[in-house]
Amino acid sequence: MSITIGGKEITQITLEGPEMEEGLLGEVEVYGKKTEVVIIDPPPPPTGDYRTIFEEVNFNNTSNYTPFGSGTIEVSNGKLKIGTNSGTNLRHGVSYNGYKTALERYRITTKFTIVDPPVSNSNGIGLGTLSQAQAQMEHMCNFTMTSGDMAAGGGRLLLKNRYISQRYEFNSNTQQRLPFAIGDVIELVFEMNREIITATAKNHTQELTIVETYAYPMTPRYLPNIGEFAIFGYKGKYEFSQIKIETDEILNPTFCLVGDSKTKGYFADTHADTFAAQLREQFGSVVNLSGGSERTYNTMERVQEIIDINPVYVFLNIGSNDNREDVSVTDWGVNYDFIVNTLEAEGIQVIHVLIFNETVEDVTPYNNRTIATYPADKILDCGTISLHDGAHPDQQGNDQITAKYAEKMNELLTL
């Protein structure tokens, strides 16, 4: 059976949609005639080329950066000199103060010259994010440049995580070494691709390169949260000629998830089993800009990042940690409304996800305020979900949330 449209015979209609399974759906009647309807697999997520967030190559002042810990910073002859007098832990250096981030995909590129002679505890330079959350969780790479490294044939690239006061080295057994000397120009690159972290160190003077890659485990202490892009210094001084920050996260996505550790996916079985990843698999164009320990005031600080991604819909689920911090419903509501109003002023539609049920905290007053403030068709209630620890969804809970979000997303796609 076929139909004719515009003088052309049509024997098949193809519908594209991430919520549909591939294969023959059946027949449809168009003006009294029937034809087959076939569904094809959706296209892959539209992750694009890298886009620059910030770049500086000719340094005139230090206004874009803030020292932390024992970090030091100065400008001389168009170069940025970064150093520290401490090699005791990871929290020394400088951060880029123009941007708060929860991006899951980004790249930091730096180029610097080794200035000081290495000593036993001059552990080199690191790149990553400096956590701004209450429970600090950070990822970074560290190119080690101690006197011992120099004697052993070169520095190593260590991929690290810092959870509150604890440190973890993912690849501490690496045998790769990059030779270095005073005056050498080093290019250090750190890339985050969801759970995959990659670091590259290139010695431009000696034309040598090493690369390290690691997929970090699916445990809460390894999941980074809101932070500032940062350069970590571990004793010694280094002269920077370039700092560049980029992202290749999906631009103009249909859906963006914004929330705390629950939306980040704590206690799912695997990275692929978080409800954000399941939704991305189903719908393709889904971005997750969430972080553990997130409060509404954290989201307010990074609302511009959400605007820059430019989603059609934001699924906003934030407030349980405000409750833990004894932020009143009134004060939480002021912050929440600011986020919503800021996004809607940019043409972004907000879906208000009621805070997931807990057994350790009563979130009912916050949810009641949302129900009383916003239209019912813009509110999503995921019901009673299965919990791991009385606060976070377990795998069954992630699956339940996936189903509820998917139902709402399908509804929105038909509007």
What's a concise summary of this model?
The protein is 20% helix and 37% strand.
What are the defining features of this structure?
single chain; 415 residues; alpha+beta; 8-stranded antiparallel β-sheet; 7-stranded antiparallel β-sheet; 9 helices; 25 strands; 20% helix; 37% strand; disordered N terminus
Description of the structure:
The protein has helices at 147-152, 261-264, 275-283, 296-301, 303-309, 320-324, 329-345, 364-373, 395-413, and strands spanning 3-5, 8-10, 12-16, 23-30, 33-40, 51-56, 65-68, 71-76, 79-84, 93-96, 105-114, 124-131, 137-143, 157-163, 166-169, 185-193, 196-203, 208-215, 227-234, 236-247, 255-259, 286-288, 313-317, 349-353, 379-380. α3 (275-283) runs parallel beside α9. With 415 residues, it is α+β, with helices and mostly antiparallel strands. Strands 6, 8, 9, 11, 16, 17, 18 and 20 form an eight-stranded antiparallel beta sheet that branches. A seven-stranded antiparallel beta sheet has the order 7-10-19-12-13-14-15, with no helix packed on it. A five-stranded parallel beta sheet has the order 22-21-23-24-25.
Which SSEs are present, and which pair or pack?
Blueprint: E1 3-5, E2 8-10, E3 12-16, E4 23-30, E5 33-40, E6 51-56, E7 65-68, E8 71-76, E9 79-84, E10 93-96, E11 105-114, E12 124-131, E13 137-143, H1 147-152, E14 157-163, E15 166-169, E16 185-193, E17 196-203, E18 208-215, E19 227-234, E20 236-247, E21 255-259, H2 261-264, H3 275-283, E22 286-288, H4 296-301, H5 303-309, E23 313-317, H6 320-324, H7 329-345, E24 349-353, H8 364-373, E25 379-380, H9 395-413
Parallel strand pairs: 3-5, 21-22, 21-23, 23-24, 24-25
Antiparallel strand pairs: 1-2, 4-5, 6-20, 7-10, 8-9, 9-20, 10-19, 11-16, 11-20, 12-13, 12-19, 13-14, 14-15, 16-17, 17-18
